[in-house]
Amino acid sequence: MLFNSLEFLIFFPVVTLLFFLIPHSWRSFHLLVASCIFYMAFIPVYILILFFTIIIDYVAGIMIAKASGRKRKYYLVMSLIANIGVLSIFKYFNFFIDNINTLFHIAHLTTYSLPFLNIILPIGLSFHTFQAMSYTIEVYRGHQQPEKNFVTYALYVMFYPQLVAGPIERPQNIIHQLHEKKRFDYYEATEGLKMMMWGMFKKVVIADRLAKVTSPVFNDAHHYSPTALLLAAFFFSFQIYCDFSGYSDIAIGAARVMGIKLMTNFNKPYRSKNVAEFWRRWHISLSTWFRDYLYISLGGNRVSVPRWYFNLFFVFLVSGFWHGANWTFVVWGALHGFYLIFAIVTQKMRARLNHLTLLDRHPRLLGVLQMITTFCLVLVAWVFFRANTIHDAFYILGRFPVALADIGHWLIRAHFSTESFKSLIGFMPVFVIDIQLSFLLIALLQGIEWVQTHKDLSALIRQRPIYIRWTLYYLMIAVIIFLGVYENRQFIYFQF
């Protein structure tokens, strides 16, 4: 079930209303049933896969707590193998088979060809798999007591707001909340609804509008001008941000209405001044997952310098592979790993350069330049993330210098009419007015985030008179209704 669907518009208020009306002892079961219905709206039979791993991890958690010595590790490994095994079969099996068959073809062993599995990737498999793994790891480490109530544990994995695209929660944050008796809180409910409204705005008004440009251009890159390719890459950077952070806002808001607090998953990532900061702000639940369970386990930065670089690069390589069974995602992850290592190696040299150019005396200007540079680096990486193939990604990036030259000439001529703009970008799958509106919406988003950086915007709105507050709310609803793109577009991260 999509958040941006009519079904969810009915599902959410019904489930929430019943949550507060029924006795506390039945609420976890009620939410579990609702979560099953939510998940089965996609491919019903795949609920069996989810319950298979839930049962294994539930038993493993109890056995880990009871066991001692090497047996504890045995039960942990059993749980991890089950989770990674399911993930490997459904998400990566055909990827490996395809690459093996390619090697056979290169070696002229055409008589050898391994068969593919005719399966569809279950929605959100990587998300709830990682959430389940965090539970058994935390029980093994002694940071979490095993959950004896099966319904509560199953709900921890399946809680519908964050079931298919996160945030990837930790048991310490969620399980105790599922035991607490929640009372309706007007403040929490209204704040949650406002978060959901803001998330829906980012999804249907901005992200889905940008998708009308990015999808056709990236899917047929060779038929568009260099400027159109650069524009599509720029738009995709904001499309994926608004799409994914919009989902997170709706998920966090829906849970908050019921008094359940999920972790923050985004924190204005495009205001980052370096790539390391970007990853502290982008998909926070995943980046901290890899930090706590993989990076630190490998030794983190408490090792020799070459090993430290390896740890960084390996973690981002795995992160790329986590996102999808395609070499484009692997390159995307590797590129971010390279960015981080390059930043460490050149740190002193960049500090001296800033001193020589006197930029260190103008911190605001330096900060702006750093944000622009970071955004450009991230944009280049997004091209690999979105492109259908490695070849397409390199073709698109190879056209960027031509696009920048064309834009430079256009700016020098200073002919900013609609006709000159159409001539600059060439054929596009949408009208110029749609592109202009897209730029306006991106500017609005960045302006709002700039205000949020310096002030609590929600608190400012609460301080206004009631007629101003409700005027803003109704205006936002009107914008979502009349400017939203309703083509049943799935959230991008559902595929992961």
From TrEMBL:
Its main location: membrane. Keywords: Acyltransferase, Cell membrane, Membrane, Transferase, Transmembrane, Transmembrane helix. The chain crosses the membrane at residues 7-26, 32-62, 74-97, 103-125, 308-323, 329-345, 365-387, 424-446, 466-486. It is found in: Cell membrane. The keyword Metal-binding does not apply. It holds the Pfam family MBOAT. It is a multi-pass membrane protein. InterPro entries: Ac/AlaTfrase_AlgI/DltB, AlgI, MB_O-acyltransferase, MBOAT_fam. One of its GO terms (cellular component) is plasma membrane. GO terms for biological process: alginic acid biosynthetic process. GO terms for molecular function: acyltransferase activity. Belongs to the membrane-bound acyltransferase family. This is Alginate O-acetyltransferase. It comes from Puia dinghuensis.
